[in-house]
Amino acid sequence: MPFKALALFLVLPALVSCGTTGTNLLSQDSQFDDMRQTLQQWSPALNSNNLEPAAQPPDDASLRLHNPAQAQALALRQSPAIRSILASQGIADADYRQATLIQNPGFSASALRAEGSDSWKTEFSLTLGILDWLTLPMRRQLAGAEHAQARSRAFQLLTDELGEVRSVYFAAVAARHISQQHQQTAEAARLNAELAARLSEAGNLSELERLHYEDVSARQRQAWQQAQAEADASMAALKRGLGLDIAAPLEIPDQLPDIADSALSAGALRTLLQDSEQFAMLLTRTTSQRPDVRFLRDNRSALERQLQLQRKQLGMSDIGVGLITEREPDGSRASGFELDLSLLVFDRGQHQRASTRAHQAQLSADEAALELAITYQLQTSLNNLLSLTEQATQLRDEDIPRQQRMLALTLQEYNFMLTGPFELIEAKQQELDTVLRYINTLESYWLEHAWLMQYTANTADIFIASLDSSAPPPGPAMNPTPRAADTHQEHHHD
Amino acid sequence: MINRRQLLLGSAAGLVSARLGSQSASAQASTSQATQAPAAAATNDLPYTPVVTPNGRTLPYRMRDGVKEFHLIAEEVDHEFAEGTRIKAWGYNGTTPGPTLEAVEGDRVRIYVTNRLQEPTTVHWHGLILPFGMDGVAGLTQRAIPPGESWVYEFTLNQHGTHMYHPHSDEMLQMAMGMMGMFIIHPRQQDSSHRIDRDFALLLHNWAIHPGTYRPDPSVMTDFDLWTINSKVFPAIAPLLAQTGERVRVRIGNLSMMNHPMHMHGVQFDVTGSDGGRWPQAQWRKEVTEIIGVGQTRDLEFTAIAGDWPLHCHMSHHTMNAMGHELPVTTGVNQGELERQIRQMIPGYMAMGEHGMSEHQAHIDAGHMRGPENTLPMMGGQGAFGPMEMGGMFTLIKVRDQLDGNNDPGWFEPPQGTQAYRVNSVPEDVPV
Ligand SMILES: [Cu+2]
Prior knowledge:
The structure holds two protein chains of two kinds.
Chain A: H1 2-9, H2 36-42, H3 44-47, E1 63-64, H4 68-78, H5 80-99, E2 106-113, E3 120-129, H6 130-134, H7 136-201, H8 207-242, E4 250-251, H9 266-274, H10 276-289, H11 291-313, E5 320-327, E6 333-340, H12 350-415, H13 421-455, H14 460-467, H15 483-493
Parallel strand pairs in A: 1-4
Antiparallel strand pairs in A: 2-3, 3-5, 5-6
Chain B: H1 4-33, E1 62-64, E2 67-82, E3 85-92, E4 101-104, E5 108-115, E6 124-126, E7 150-156, E8 161-166, H2 171-176, E9 181-186, E10 198-207, E11 226-229, E12 240-243, E13 247-254, E14 260-264, E15 269-274, E16 277-278, E17 285-287, E18 289-292, E19 297-303, E20 307-313, H3 336-345, H4 358-366, E21 380-383, E22 386-390, E23 394-400
Parallel strand pairs in B: 2-5, 4-9, 10-13, 12-23
Antiparallel strand pairs in B: 1-2, 2-3, 5-7, 6-8, 8-9, 10-11, 13-19, 14-18, 14-20, 15-16, 15-17, 15-19, 20-23, 21-22
């Protein structure tokens, strides 16, 4: 099935974010042997050290994902939904071949005997649809266009699936990150409650006050439990998206990547939003890559060809040419041609052509509407990303350090008996709350980022990174990625 | 207007004090350098013993036409309560409290007041009997002195006693900022039977310097952070020096927002006067603690006994520096493992107060408990035998048989057999 591989995987590089080079993740997968060349050529992500085979001995050990590209690579290999898309492409391939064949010629034989005669009159005819022949190149084109449409549809589905994998990956990491943060907040509240209990035991704190701290602690513990449940659910969603067994061990990072790891710097985003030429370039790039736009365009050109075909067929619909051989009863032979056609009296194809032209107009309007929608969606998404970048940067560079400074100053006041231990621990809780806000902002950022990447068919980061030479290379580098593991892995492959 | 009779009286008094004045002025110059004690030798000719303002000074004057001329300058000052706490305060002539004015009953004084603040001010001569127009009440007795202007107050001192001066213009703020001073008027007729050898002037005040800040908060009414004697806190308050057997007078004025029961160790003092002047001896009473009410002054006299005797406010929070007032009580609370857990979350956390607060000074002195900037620890001060755990309105009267001039004599060593000592066991027949 080399065609299938080519058809689909020519577009794959656009679906999967880039990663670092390394050993081919799929190299041991015989199912994909025939794609390897294409993959290596087109998709660095799939060539990366993604699945860390070193940490993945044959049977039981858990998979470890460090970034969304690795998740996407795994999904390509594992996800039933993606396998279904690949299979549908196989069907389309077969249909295409079918459509490019010439109709089998017709053959008929007859034997007649005159009444009272001993001799038979036999007749053989071989008929071949001449139109079928004449229009073969045209039909091949048409089938090709339909096939391209099918490919676009598959591409769209794959884009969606892989985009979804990216989103659920980030959602899962975020949920873990948030859950850990809730754990710390709950721990701080527990310390306060424990302190209150000790003070109460010593007779220094009323029951009412002690219960107040206990109540706060209970609420925080509940929030943590909820966060844990959400983390579990997100992990399950990720596994499902990856096509893993629900019990399969899977490791993902504890923390979301920093905003600095994104290729989309605030400066580049601002440039893009302010410079209409740059934005137009991104729009062009997006529309040329997006499956739905390609789908509409392919549809339109298919209709164009259909229209041409209809014009060629004009006046000679259903022409049949036959080669007839007759053997007379007397043994003599007569051969000749037979032409068989229907008269274009009532249906001359004019309505069919009108319909096609109307379809064309509709598609063209649809395409314009889609482009307009894409323009707005892109603008909105870039705006959101810029705002989230600024918020996250402020939280990281100003708000969290401020809270840390406040905690340090509260400790100084505590040291001088100017403030009490409850206030001290509450200052720590304030800091934890700010960190939680930061994580929530990061989550929104990476989900928006994933959405934009999906929406632009994975082209946004490379394009935007090109606007800002100071930006890091595209593709979030997940921390922690221990260098030792990399070395180990390469060693393993030797 | 000064009438003819006042003028005559004034000039008559002026003649007398003109002679004294020049010597007095030179005496001030020497004491302004050493704040500990009067230069007794230089004051032998005076009919009175000049007052000493610990950590402060007496304002020099010049005689002009029989009038003692002083110059007070109201201005912002850079003030230090003790090492580690500096603020922007307001005061006079570079200090808070302002310099002590000292004169003699019957003197005519002309006091120039220059306003170097950015807002109007006045000087009210607290407790002085003077013409209405000299009373220094903004709006009532005069227009307030605008910034940059110099005004004159001139009147004759028709009384004696321990008095004070302070603004009566934006009074709440200006006093909260530290604008105040002592005004000592000696009786024309000295009490020869109780000649004073050492005379000290102490002015009590309170300050709201929130931890980590550099300027007083004038809105605070009760929860002050610092309680000061002459705008200093222990251990930065200069000790009062005297020699055994000397008669010592401690004049205490209070321009804070609270009454202070001032307690003296080692002696029963006589309360001998107030802003009402020196009391007739029949009115004197023996006390060990005297409440100095807000806006009042009291003179406490005693014969010095060798030792380092505390003189302090007996409201124990007033002998502390900045402290929190709404802390949970940690006495008797064993945090145990919890302390380690909290420290894990907040590095540097230490449980404190399980067995009392005494350990606090030990932690501070050991240097491993850093406090807010510009903030003094709640308690401090090292004596010869360990931490004194004091702050605020606390100082020492250091009495020795023989002083070495104005030098701090160091710690008093109790003579053999006169100091508390440790025993290994208490006889069982001592009832408990
Ligand atoms: Cu007091």
